[in-house]
Design the sequence.
């Protein structure tokens, strides 16, 4: 008979204490394969507990497979063969606690930040409260696989007005961030495709492709964007480009080259992934129409994000598919639930419907424009031969230096003095071609700090080249 | 000289009207490659507009590459070769407007719904407002790639208490839904792996694998879960299982089989993906510990979701990685931004910290238990030989019928009478083995409707088998 010490005052229920004791004895082989357990009544009397308590413990042991019951015969121990060799592998290193502190610079000319200081927080919060009040239970249901229809209607309107794109809400697919959208595109196009990205370019695309074991070609740029010579003689059939404001060079691909790229896609029956991540921010003249708006043959997948123009914490990006791929998505990929929370989809819809989004873009455009002018003033006040490129659009610009400038030294010197600034050569992956230039993001730094940072750079002699 | 009619009263600015006219003429070849445009001053005088207006229009045409300027010579038309053949492909079908109405049944015994009626909406809204008030600008920054640390601390505590799992927050990765988590796992393990899923089972896993062009084996089950014989003689090295409450059969894999599966993974140096989607809902006895809690050798990837126990609109799922994969993730996959909005991560953290999550689970357990009892009462009041399986855990049960029952007929008859109920055979993918059984989900139907639905089934003679 089992004799266990059961503690009636413990937080652990008696049945659970009994279960734990018997389980331990089975795993210890104190009670062995085939052994019969005492009947419920006998054990209850022995331990001075209720029959129900024993029964609950036995039921749990049965559920987990430690014992089994034979009607009219009783309870028996199962054959539990623990695999001897299963012990902690010593090849696995010791866990390290995540380091959550961030090492920030005092002045950051980063390209991957967004000005959250100027986010219309009170309006957003107000709309969130309205959604909470009005939507109630609708918030708990999943949205359509492609995203909330009302949101896609607003995105289509916005694309028409700002990017010259004619599309139906049915062509739009909303997803949790641009990286997720790229994942969907890869799956939608199939893995037999051959991809190319711009070099220099946005690293992550190639990283995602490599996570799929897809080799990526890196195509060089000329002064008008992707080099047609390299494109035409490549084996690829999917091209990722940012023609409206190439990252990091800032090149705006002219209309002729755009038609050439479209022609390539048409003749090769390939696809162009047009990444239009920052081109609503055009500071002079009207926006340059998207490549997608020139495409009548259905070879452009347009993608954009709210991370750059609203807030990076909102994981909301989207793409516009040509109809052929819309049908493929509807047939084969609707099993994927939408990845964006309904709550934020409703809030963003209201934000767009109410005209707040347009106002925000216009406001940020003025703020960024004034920062660009501050940087230009800082540069022109210097006795240096720095020239500025790509400053009329987007969220970064390029400063080009004379051929013999030691940019890596410049960058490390600046960093040592609390200024984060990046060398354009960091964005070259293969076929690295040394060009002395800096990439300047101005979304995370205000006018005052821009002036302070440039004064430091000046004092360090970093901007005096002549 | 260009003679365009420009409308000063139009909403479209004069410069844009001028730009549109010249652009159209270039595309029409009315003005041709190499043609010189009138000087800004001349055109301004001719059209009676300001020089600045002409300059703005010309600048836009330059940005888009329609024209170019030669210093001291003037503005010239670029060579725009529109590819003739780019016209709408006629193989693409005509777009159809999305149908947004849902065809619902009056009574639904679905397994993919969640009881949103009982969601603690006012508490959730209160916490959301607190987050809005307290967090402010933190809400706009991205969370750590693995998810908010504070949330992962809460998940680790919960897993310890409810599922017997010992893990560190560093091992947990939060993502936008289980399908996204599966995507991450596939990329993390690499595509050279061979996968198997349970048959019958949860379809989506195989669909995702197929989107990666990965062939999936379908392993049969015996009464204790995955068939060891088939597992051992298969070529596979990654196994997706739901040992705590198999979907759809409801099988709870006993401890012996669990150790056998672990031993298989250890010897094959493979991985088990333990999908623990509904096992916090245990109605008798304490929860059955997760397979992960028995694993000392680092071969189990545990995954779970808040979609089933909270709300499907919250796209928040997570996985617990063995340390070896944690290091791989940290090295190779941290470039992926987290896919869940910061705002909802903060709210969920508060919900868990405040004990609301635990209370909600306990409350829902009681509600679901009462529904199970209602179904049992409905069945036992009938003169039928239906037996119930898998009703002690999870969010669905199985009704088994005598061998000769025509289940497809039963299901279609029920559907014609407004009752959604599903045939277990729908979940078999290959090696379809006919077994007369129904899968009953009770998350989307209350006690009153359960009784009404069973009365209808009874009247239809569908539950009288003898």
Sequence:
């Amino acid at each position: 008979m089992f004799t266990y010490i059961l503690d009636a005052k413990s937080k652990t229920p008696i049945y659970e204490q009994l279960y734990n004791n018997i389980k331990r004895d089975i795993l210890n082989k104190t009670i062995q394969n085939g052994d019969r357990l005492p009947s419920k009544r006998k054990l209850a009397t022995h331990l001075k507990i209720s029959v129900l308590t024993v029964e609950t413990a036995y039921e749990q042991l049965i559920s987990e497979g430690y014992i089994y019951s034979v009607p009219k015969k009783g309870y028996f121990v199962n054959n539990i063969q623990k695999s001897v060799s299963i012990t902690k592998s010593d090849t696995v290193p010791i866990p390290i606690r995540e380091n959550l502190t961030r090492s920030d610079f005092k002045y950051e000319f980063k390209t991957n930040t967004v000005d959250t200081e100027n986010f219309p927080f009170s309006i957003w919060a107000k709309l969130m409260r309205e959604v909470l009040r009005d939507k109630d239970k609708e918030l708990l249901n999943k949205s359509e696989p492609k995203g909330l229809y009302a949101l896609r209607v607003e995105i289509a309107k916005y694309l028409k007005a700002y990017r010259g794109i004619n599309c139906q809400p049915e062509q739009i697919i909303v997803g949790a961030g641009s990286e997720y959208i790229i994942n969907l595109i890869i799956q939608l196009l199939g893995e037999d495709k051959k991809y190319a990205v711009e070099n220099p370019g946005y690293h992550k695309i190639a990283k995602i492709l490599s996570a799929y074991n897809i080799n990526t070609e890196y195509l060089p740029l000329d002064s008008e964007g992707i080099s047609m010579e390299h494109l035409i003689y490549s084996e690829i059939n999917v091209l990722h480009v940012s023609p409206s404001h190439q990252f990091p060079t800032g090149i705006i691909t002219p209309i002729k080259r755009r038609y050439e790229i479209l022609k390539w896609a048409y003749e090769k029956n390939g696809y162009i992934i047009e990444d239009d991540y920052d081109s609503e921010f055009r500071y002079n003249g009207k926006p340059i129409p998207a490549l997608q708006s020139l495409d009548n043959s259905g070879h452009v997948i347009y993608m954009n994000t709210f991370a750059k123009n609203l807030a990076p914490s909102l994981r909301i990006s989207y793409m516009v598919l040509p109809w052929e791929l819309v049908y493929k998505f509807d047939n084969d990929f609707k099993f994927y639930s939408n990845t964006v929370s309904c709550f934020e989809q409703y809030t963003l819809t209201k934000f767009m419907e109410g005209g707040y989004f347009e106002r925000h873009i216009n406001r940020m455009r003025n703020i960024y424009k004034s920062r660009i002018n501050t940087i230009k003033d800082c540069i022109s006040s210097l006795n240096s031969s720095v020239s500025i490129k790509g400053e009329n659009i987007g969220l970064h610009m390029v400063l080009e230096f004379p051929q013999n400038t030691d940019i890596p030294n410049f960058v490390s010197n600046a960093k040592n003095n609390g200024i984060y600034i990046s060398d354009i050569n960091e964005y070259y992956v293969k076929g690295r071609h040394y060009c002395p230039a800096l990439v300047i993001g101005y979304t995370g730094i205000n006018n005052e700090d821009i002036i302070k940072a440039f004064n430091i750079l000046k004092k360090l002699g970093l901007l005096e080249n002549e």
Residues 356-380 of chain B form the longest helix (25 residues). The CA atoms of residues 241 and 335 of chain B lie 29 Å apart.
